[in-house]
Amino acid sequence: QVQLVESGGGLVQPGGSLRLSCAASGFTENYYSIGWFRQAPGEEREGVSLFSNNDGSTYYADAVKGRFTISRDSAGNKVYLQMNSLKPDDTAVYYCAASTWGTVTPDSKFFEYWGQGTQVTVSS
After folding, report:
1. What share of the chain has pLDDT > 90, as a percent?
2. Backbone angles phi and psi of 70, in degrees to 5
3. Which residues contact 66 (CB under 8 A, 6 or more apart)?
4. Is the dihedral angle over the CA atoms 101, 106, 112, 113 positive or is it negative?
5. SS3 helix, strand, coil % of the chain, rounded to 5?
6. CA–CA separation, 67 and 16 (whole Å)
7. What would the pLDDT profile of 86-123 be if each residue is shown by its tens digit?
8. 74: Cβ–Cβ under 8 A, 6 or more apart, which residues?
9. Residue 59: how many CA atoms within 13 Å on its side-chain side?
10. How much is the mean pLDDT over the chain?
11. Which tens digits make up the pLDDT trace of 76-85?
């Protein structure tokens, strides 16, 4: 049973930084991808940053390129999203998601497993 547990959200001023963490467990094979989606009120869920354990490829949404960085710990049990230069438009619930397809295509239908979400609010 795959489980994903996020932490690290909160309130931050514009220009500030946050680091989200996702503790992942239950993977039985190395062929998967994992990363972050977000959903703002009244908006569709969108892919933010994804990593494929299959080939090491990554995806970043255009809106976060140069500001956000996805990484993993050496054991592969945690995935992080370092968010710098945060803007009010980054305000959303951020979800950790995993896919046994190993894809970094930012489409939620390819991701079978989801965390409960963590709120990020960027406001002065």
Report:
1. 81
2. -95, 145
3. none
4. positive
5. 5, 50, 50
6. 11
7. 999 999 999 999 999 888 999 999 999 999 999 999 99
8. none
9. 20
10. 94
11. 789 999 999 9
